[in-house]
Queue: 3 jobs
Job 1
Amino acid sequence: MTDQLTVSVLGTGIMGAAMARNLVRAGHTVRVWNRSRDKAEPLAADGAYVAGGPDEAVRGADVVLTMLYDGPAALDVMQRAAPGLGPGTVWAQSTTAGVDAVADLAAFAHEHGLVFFDAPVLGTRQPAEAGQLLVLAAGPGEARDRVTPVFDAVGSRTVWTGEDGAAGSATRLKLVANSWVLAATNAVGEVLSLAKALGVDPDGFFDAIAGGPLDMGYLRAKAGLIRDGALTPAQFAVATAEKDARLIVEAGEANGVRLDLAAAGARRFARAAAQGHGDEDMAAAYFASFEEKTTD
């Protein structure tokens, strides 16, 4: 390919590892780093170079892609990477960081002469592995050709939301979209838990809504994970869903909007995590409907 780049992927969890593999498949030179090295090492078999530290990973890279837990984690890692960063390096920040954190990340980018793109993605493990994520991106038009090959490798489509990554327009859209996804996920769990409590066969519910406006593939997919006990490996983990739900609530509060369902959803995810389901698929919020099991 003519647009071969050297791309550094910092953070190789569920999403970052899949994105790194697709970047390798697209013909890019890929360096990876993860705080827990054991999560990065399998990528060596796919053709990625596993770096010993963030600074080594980013040295000489055309594009740095961060896919870390949250904004503070992304800032910490980039500060550690700073000795290896060169002015003019493109930074595609794909962590769901929250509105306030994006401003802090953009300030770091400005301080170090980086070209900053706010670029969160929509999708979970399966679309990430297939290179079918939806990339939400904001950044300078004159530099988009430098990052487009990366977005094309990890996603099926890129939606541009603005020219200034520091304004956080892509992150704002991501939070709005996630508010719907997380509410729907919690609704699935409550439907199944209520059916269990009332002695209703869930298939009766699915038959009742089949083919109508209340039916949706996402409902059936998440319900299937719960009913089949197929919550690992996670498509998107409970603990991460709880973090995103808190960011959504905080964004609403900061802008004078009360988000009662999002707040309750955050507590529900937190309760499921406390019961030991934090690393399972976010559909495991289902278990938050029941008292935590104890042993005598």
Job 2
Amino acid sequence: MTLRIDISGLPSERLRFAASPLAELTAMLHVLAEPGHHPQFAGWAADVWAGLRPELAERLREADFLWRSSQADFLYPARPRPTLAEELDDVDRIDDERYVTAALVTTCGSNRGHFSGASPLTDTAARERALEVAQARGGLQEAFAERLLADPAAVRARVRHTLEECAEAFFDGAWAGVAVQLATDLRLKNELLRRHGVGAALASVSGAVTLAPDGDCIIVDKVQDKATAARDAGVTFIPSVFGRPHLVAVHAPGWHPVVQYPVAEPSPSEPVSLETITLRLEALAHPVRLRLLRTLARGPHTTSELAHFWELSPPEVSRHLAVLRRAGLLTPRRQGRYVRYTLNLPDLTALGTDLLAAVLR
């Protein structure tokens, strides 16, 4: 499952790396709304909530559908600006139909197909569908959707005011703390792009982002099957400290492709591909293979030893071991005439974390 961004014919200079205050504020707001996704920032989130004025805390909960489970596309600028105020000015220039549709996608779920081709501001069926889905997701979502549809200008002004107050309450201080880290990452990415080309720059973003062999497509390893095209506007990559482990991609029709990626930790590990995770889950789904792993967890064994222990035929054991090897869960080591299989315990242990990281990105 992948997101494919068509960049055929796109000059390399249209692939841009830039920091965005608004996108990083969005990442911080997501941490506050979903601290379970970001245990490394749990202390920060608790301190922020403890220090917020009650009125601002209430307004954050009121609008958190813009950044909780799926972030509104207008929160990721295709052309980042130096300041949050400038980026909010750009958001103000978006017409009501695009703004409302993007906001309702996050309020009513992440499936952008609900609103494709029709604006809930002008199309009765789209409006009813938006309210129906919002109602199913709870009273706060329903109330937000009703206010947005009834008076887009008032809700937009209230959201902007909320974001401006966040700057004073916690964002400005946090932004100053991450700015050097973001600038360092951007120097690396832009130098790689200039000296070694698009493929090298993308490889440094994440193991989940690659350039297709023909160079005409950026492939993002996500739990979705989507496609978009860069066209003349290009593609924007925005580094984030607070966004880790998410890899956020703007891909809806009418919006320029934007990818927010997590800045690498001091000792980053390569993300495990969805294909590998799928192989491992399939390998573990068979009861015989689970029995074999139970024995191998106690130490290296040969095929014959495993067959004898579990009263299976050696060919049957060999077939199951081959599946486990393809999934990367076993390592064979030859010792004289014998081949002993060793369980890759760290990879098996990390499967839960790897699966969570793949789903969250």
Job 3
Amino acid sequence: MEKTGRPEKEWLSERSVNLSTLVLLLEAMLAYVVSLVYGVTQESPNAGVGAGMSIIFLPVLAVFAAVIAGALTVLLVLPTAWLSEVLGRRFGGREAWWVPVAAGAVSVVIVAGAVARAGNSGTGALALGWSLTTAALSVPALLWRSRRERIFKPVILWGVAAIVLTAVLGGVGLATGVLKEYRPPALTSADIVGRWSDGQGGTVTFTADGRVAAVDLDDDLGGWGPEDDATGPEGTDTRCTGQGTWTYEPGGNRQAQEVDMSIEWCGFAPWNVGGTDSRPTLYQYIGDPDSWDLYVLRRTDGSP
């Protein structure tokens, strides 16, 4: 049977798209597990709370992730596979050898654009983002032209095995103390007493008798300041200066600790406890809590 000699184009098929989408989904699940383990070890607001909520909405997230993976297949993996084929033909090498090169080239554009948009010029973040993106694109691009029968089964098997192994190793690391789980410091009322600063000229001083004095604290945190309810003098000043009372609520666990501060003309929500045992902090969310944009107070001395 006569052959045209033209490279077979079956790799540009529904099978290839489905295989790439599957690999991207498995990679996303692996990245999710890694992010959960890593997040547990990092100082963060409401540490350990978000994981449970994410699991509850996992079915919805899975559907959303499948749509995103399909889009990434068309927008990123397909160009990577095509570019590796072009480079392979141009330089007479194996197309598979050029996949990481092509993935790296595509990654540079993606990561550089993301870093420029975020305004982050850190070389470490850029290198890490480029490396991870390159690796993530290389795997589905290498499998793109595979004509192996029943390839979906081994891909699922090895992918799930990698995810489970990562989760088990992460759990063992946390259980044995090799990975240190972050927990806010367990404070008492006596630990709150003293002078705290926001680092921008605002201070608050808590006394042992339950009194508090604030000077130039930012009271415009997106829903709590006098600018929202216009109850302060003239309804325009977004800095809080005054005296009042405070209480410490230990809550049921370390994440539930709160410091409630009541000052006339100031509309603060209860302050959350963060930081470390040696350097505790009090913080509130600025705007949407999901943004993790925080207004933080740090203790500047001991008891007054």
